[in-house]
Predict the structure.
Amino acid sequence: MLSQRIIETLVGIFLLAAILALITLAFKVSGLTTFFKQEGYNITASFDDIGQLKVRGSVKIGGVTVGEVTKIAIDPSTYKAVVTLRINSTVKDIPVDSSASILTAGLLGDNYIAITPMYSKDFLKDNDEIEETHSAMILEKLIGQFLFSIGHSNDKNSDTAEKGAKQ
């Protein structure tokens, strides 16, 4: 009888350990916790339009993820979006004249920030700001501008045709 109880206790302990491991994995994969925060430094960048960029969005250099977006706020004086980026401590040599762009992964994918390093010998440090930024291209705005330009070119063509017919 004692051996049966020991087996049941070990099975219970194993199940609890498995459940805790699954919960830890779920939090780690989802990014909803700061238990596993990587060491690094913060930099900021101001954008006119951030599109659908979200907190925990990727920060990439040359396609390699080097950090994440930690905070998005609005500057009350300029009405620009101020994005705080957490760069991993392994990436130390980002030149101060680098530029940051908001890009889309694929045609309709998530937005991320791509940093393009330049040539300065001085490097970004904690709480520095990237001056050169390029806002997100919003697909809806581009389609609207395209349709508007098509509408105006058709109006001009019909006006030209009417003038030609009158002469």
